[in-house]
From TrEMBL:
EC number from the UniProt entry: 3.2.1.68
Pfam family, one: Alpha-amylase
Keywords per UniProt: Chloroplast, Hydrolase, Plastid, Transit peptide
Source species of the chain: Volvox africanus
Composition bias, Pro residues: 918-928
InterPro entries: GH, GH13_cat_dom, GlgX_Isoamylase_N_E_set, Glyco_hydro_13_N, Glyco_hydro_b, Ig-like_fold, Ig_E-set, ISOA1-3-like_C
Protein name per the record: isoamylase
Annotated segments matching region Disordered: 1-25, 642-670, 886-987, 1003-1026
Catalytic activities: Hydrolysis of (1->6)-alpha-D-glucosidic branch linkages in glycogen, amylopectin and their beta-limit dextrins
Biased composition (Low complexity): 946-987
GO function term, MF aspect, one: isoamylase activity
Length: 1056
């Protein structure tokens, strides 16, 4: 269907919101008839007559209205199809047959199925002349055209669409358009026009683009700027589009029956990835690093990690050399690495293609990307594209003319009355998204990527720009006698009485629309119906629509930046409303997506976005702690401030407000206590992300702790800063990769975390140190909850973000016990108790037995800045009874006089300190750099556990065997006492030996005295054997922890 004809409004958009169309408005039949008789007649009488480029106005005349002396039949009876195949007067050439009229649809280059001729159609409402330019690759590299076919405005134009058809065209050629018309720099009365006949521009609908074949390759060294030399400079050489493939010589891509996966949104775990950065590092070991093919070789990593959706940073054609220049103070050069500067929207990025680099046809890029999508689908991974419909690479008035600007600047860009560019994107221009032609272009593009490439969804960069009102212009008027353009008031801009640019219906340009036509059209489009639609619901002018982006029945999810901020603030232990906000984030942010009432500071939510508040479930929230722009996970816990000096902008770029904490020292640290705390915090934030309702998104490299050295804006670096270090991932010295892999797979196996509706009181209960007593004060550093699975089981999760340890009493669920699963305070692999080849099933059982003295009594100690997860499991009455008696007696032995030095209550927690070869430090003065108010500060220092004690009320509140028979003061003193300062690790080993032996002897004595009458000692012997077995298991777990710690210290070079 014709995308923009005279007065035509496309799709389901509301007509009253559209400005004047760029069709035949303002033209009378008299003016058309005049030009038809004066100019068209002479053209049709003499086909050798040169095209009258300088005078002809852009008439909106359909081919059927022209005087047809050469046609075989009358236009009133000739079929439209036959008319399209009529000769248009231009001669053939050695690369194509006689030129045909062509048809105005579809836009772009397409193959006629019956004849094999290629039809070209492009929108350009204000141009006075258009030529189709053909290139061989050799001529393209030389900066010259090979052939040019000028189009007849009376035969090759219908409405605003210029079209032509070429039979017998060689399919190895490339093409573009030379467009002539007004330019505001030379025509003062025509603001907003920027046609340049010296440029050859890309077809917006081009399916593949060739400029250079390899990433970072410079263009030819030509005399750019001189007459006849195409291209701008060696970093911006002339680019051209590939012709469509067709016929028996070009077999169709074999999808092997590939179909959309249609995974439920709530079940996704998204991995934000960069195609080049994923495999560019030499340690990837792939055949073609930094390409689609290279990424295919490493997809198994994502599958094993548990990822089922990848969100690819921009893969539409862009110019990586756009910013190319030497970075001041370094030997490196600045690249457009991320790709948020689109050159062409229908073409996959060519220099991500291994096939293109090898010299294959330009269209091979398309097949390589299709292969990537197909291989992802084979592994159960959906493909979501990060798309940039908010601006293009052409920038402001100082930018290059590549495509849209040279075709129809007034149509494609949001302009002010003087032709200035609105800059809601922060990148120099703003795409005029809700203008009818542009709106249809975006819809066509999205549909193409779904139908042609089988992609599963889109993430819209700065999506709030998609809701802004467009700018509108009156069509240019021409003098009937001279053919010259007529000056118009306000230069043709449709302005309000106050002189403000409008959308043509009185709405000021840039105003956020309550019912944006583009967003509505995307939401209701049948081809896009089952795709994932994700909005980055803000832009660079301060419009924030998080929680109220127009979602049309919940079709859209949103990047939830508030989740990131809340998690970072709570996990680092900041005073404020963070405990309550964190609890809401865990539930999927119902305060944002279910609450119909906007905060008083929410301008959009209280005005145009009011109707979009509420009504959505947890899957509306795309949860993330990090993203490509900002600190990596490792840097969030290693830097208080950004360090972007490597960008060459004096550290002025990048976000200054990062809500990060360096854990005691800025940047890389040789202090084990700092590095250990950082490892805890990384696990804590990952647990917060993956144990929350909503849709989690992980940033590439975070799965192994990739650092960018504190640089939070690495957009310009084609270096290790942005590359996955596969060598570091394989080494996994801290065990973090194992932890995150197990946690992701645990989430995917837990339906209670994948919700379509928000939790209720039946699903979740909140706790503090005691069950059902949460603390929501602004000084709270503890959030704990149980999450039911609806089948009698569930999870107990607690986050302690204080500098002091907590002893938590867990709720008692009849007939069930709590089995430890995650404890971020423990050294790997005991941070996640799962049999995975690193730990065996026996290892897991032994580790849980070592903690049974706590879990049997529904208690658990949580160290500072730690998270725990326990799973509810059916109780084994025999084992539980034995463990309780053993635990009670072992605690009784510790409560005897002189027993305060036998070690802490939790063996595995104590083992985490052995990694430093010394017990926890005794109380002492604060180390330099620690906060002044240690107990209430935002930041803290790891290691001073022995400096604090539980308060009396907490100690006495528990009636468990762990505290029975002791006064509150004795309970407090037993917890706060520190082991004596002996030589390490002999002191801790000696303490452990004393503790284990004492526990075994006390348990055996107690069980022996409780033997039933007539027993000859068998029961006591059996009980003693069971106790001894338990002690051996504990000792085995401790020995393994010591061995793991020793090996870990060796690999990190921390042995002292």
């Amino acid at each position: 269907m014709l995308s923009s004809g005279p007065g035509l409004t496309i799709g389901p958009a509301r007509r009253q919101r559209q400005g004047p169309c760029h069709g035949n408005l303002g033209y009378t039949k008299t003016s058309i008839g005049h030009w038809q008789s004066v100019v068209a007649g002479s053209w049709m009488r003499d086909r050798r007559h040169p095209f009258y480029r300088g005078l002809l106005p852009p008439q909106r005349v359909a081919s059927v209205e022209l005087e047809p002396p050469k046609l075989s039949s009358s236009p009133t009876t000739a079929s439209t199809k036959k008319l399209f195949f009529e000769p248009s007067g231009q001669p053939g050439s050695i690369v194509h047959g006689p030129v045909l009229t062509g048809r105005p649809e579809p836009l772009g280059a397409s193959i006629d199925a019956e004849t094999g001729a290629i039809n070209f159609a492009v929108v350009s409402s204000s141009s006075t002349a258009v030529s189709l330019v053909l290139f061989t690759e050799a001529d393209l590299a030389a900066g010259r055209s090979s052939f040019e076919v000028p189009l007849n405005p009376y035969v090759n134009r219908t409405g605003d669409v210029w079209h032509v058809m070429l039979p017998g065209l060689r399919d190895d050629l490339l093409y573009g358009y030379r467009v002539n018309g007004l330019h505001q720099d030379t025509d003062a009365d025509s603001p907003g026009h920027r046609h340049d006949q010296n440029r050859v521009v890309l077809d917006p609908y081009a399916i593949a683009v060739l400029g250079r074949r390899r990433w970072g390759q410079m263009g030819p060294n030509l005399a750019y700027g001189e007459g006849g030399v195409l291209g701008l400079m060696s970093t911006w050489p002339q680019a051209a589009a590939a012709l469509p493939a067709g016929g028996p010589r070009v077999p169709a891509f074999d999808w092997e029956g590939d179909r959309p996966l249609n995974l439920p949104m709530e079940g996704l775990v998204i991995y934000e990835a960069h195609v080049r950065g994923y495999t560019a590092h030499e340690s990837s070991g792939v055949t073609a690093p930094g390409t689609y093919a290279g990424m295919i070789e490493k997809l198994d990593h994502l599958q094993s990690l548990g990822i089922n959706a990848i969100e690819l940073l921009p893969v539409f054609e862009f110019n990586e050399l756009e910013y190319y220049s030497q970075i001041p103070g370094s030997n490196e050069y600045r690249y457009n690495f991320w790709g948020y500067s689109t050159v062409n929207y229908f073409s996959p990025m060519g220099r991500y293609s291994a096939a293109l680099a090898e010299g294959r046809h330009v269209r091979s890029t398309c097949d390589e990307f299709k292969q990537l999508v197909k291989e992802c689908h084979k592994r159960g991974i959906e493909v979501i594209l990060d798309v940039v419909f908010n601006h293009t690479a052409e920038g402001n008035e100082r930018g290059p003319t590549i495509s849209f600007r040279g075709l129809d600047n007034r149509v494609y860009y949001m302009l002010a009355p003087g032709g200035e560019y609105y800059n809601y994107s922060g990148c120099g221009n703003t795409l005029n998204c809700n203008q009818p032609v542009v709106r249809q272009f975006i819809l066509d593009c999205l549909r193409y990527w779904v139908t042609e490439y089988h992609v599963d969804g889109f993430r819209f960069d700065l999506a709030s720009i998609l809701t802004r009102a467009p700018s509108a212009w009156h069509p240019q008027q021409y003098d009937e006698e001279t053919g010259q353009p007529v000056a118009m008031s306000s230069g043709g801009a449709v302005v309000s009485a106050e002189g403000i640019m409008t959308d043509g219906a009185g709405v000021p340009t840039g105003t956020p629309l309550p019912d944006p036509p583009l967003v509505e059209a995307i939401s209701e489009d049948p081809v896009l119906r089952n795709t994932k639609l994700i909005a980055e619901a803000w832009d660079c002018d301060g419009l924030n629509q998080v929680g109220a982006f127009p979602h049309y029945g919940g079709r859209w999810s949103e990047w939830n930046g508030k989740f990131r901020d809340v998690v970072r603030n709570f996990i680092k232990g900041t005073d404020g409303p963070w405990a309550g906000d964190f609890a809401s984030a865990v539930c999927g942010s119902p305060n944002i997506y279910a609450n119909t009432q906007a905060h008083e500071s929410d301008w959009w939510g209280n005005n145009g976005g009011r109707q979009w508040r509420g009504g959505r479930g947890p899957s509306a929230s795309i949860n993330f702690v990090t993203a490509h722009d900002g600190f990596t996970l490792a840097d969030v816990v290693s830097y208080n401030n950004k360090h972007n000096e490597a960008n060459g902008e004096d550290n002025r770029d990048g976000e200054a407000h990062n809500n990060s904490w360096n854990c005691g020292e800025e940047g890389p640290s040789g202090k084990w206590e700092v590095n250990r705390l950082r490892q805890r915090q990384m696990r804590n934030m990952s647990a917060a992300l993956l144990l929350s309702c909503g849709v989690p998104m992980i940033t590439m490299g975070d799965e192994y702790g990739h650092s960018k050295g504190g640089n939070n804006n690495t957009y310009c670096h084609d270096s290790d800063l942005n590359y996955v270090r596969w060598d570091q991932l394989a080494a996994d010295p801290s065990g973090f990769h194992r932890f995150i892999r197990l946690l992701i797979n645990f989430r995917r196996a837990t339906p209670a975390l994948q919700r379509t509706s928000y939790v209720t009181e039946k699903d979740i209960q909140w706790h503090g140190e005691l069950p059902h007593q949460p603390d929501w004060a602004e000084t709270s550093r503890l959030v704990a909850f149980t999450l039911s699975d609806g089948k009698g089981g569930g999870l107990y999760v607690a986050f302690n973000t204080s500098h002091i340890p907590r002893l938590l009493r867990m709720p008692v669920w009849a007939g069930r016990v709590w089995q430890p699963l995650v404890d971020t305070s423990k050294v790997a692999p005991y941070d996640f108790l799962a049999a995975d080849g690193v730990l065996s099933a026996g290892d897991v059982t032994a580790a849980r037995r070592a903690l049974a003295m706590w879990t049997a009594d529904h208690t658990y100690p949580v160290l500072p800045w730690s998270c725990i997860v326990l799973v509810s499991a059916p109780e084994d009455p025999t084992a539980t009874s034995m463990i309780r008696r053993t635990a009670a007696q072992s605690v009784g032995s510790r409560s005897q006089p002189g027993s305060g030095d036998i070690g802490p209550k939790n063996p595995m927690s104590w083992a985490t300190n052995l990694i430093s070869n010394q017990p926890p430090p005794s109380p002492g003065p604060q180390r330099p750099g620690t906060p002044k108010h240690y107990g209430r500060a935002e930041h803290g220092t790891y290691g001073n556990m022995s400096a604090v004690s539980y308060n009396d009320s907490n100690a006495s509140a528990s009636s468990s065997p762990l505290t029975s028979g002791r006064t509150p003061s004795s309970a407090s003193s037993s917890v706060s006492s520190a082991p004596p300062r002996q030589s390490a690790p002999q002191a801790t080993r000696a303490n452990w030996r004393t503790f284990l032996n004492g526990a075994s002897e006390a348990a055996a004595a107690a069980l022996g005295s409780a033997s039933p009458p007539g027993d000859t000692g068998g029961a006591a012997t059996a009980a003693a054997d069971a106790s001894a077995e338990l002690s051996l298991a504990e000792q085995a777990a401790l020995a393994q922890a010591l061995n793991e710690n020793s090996e870990l210290r060796r690999r990190l070079g921390l042995n002292r």
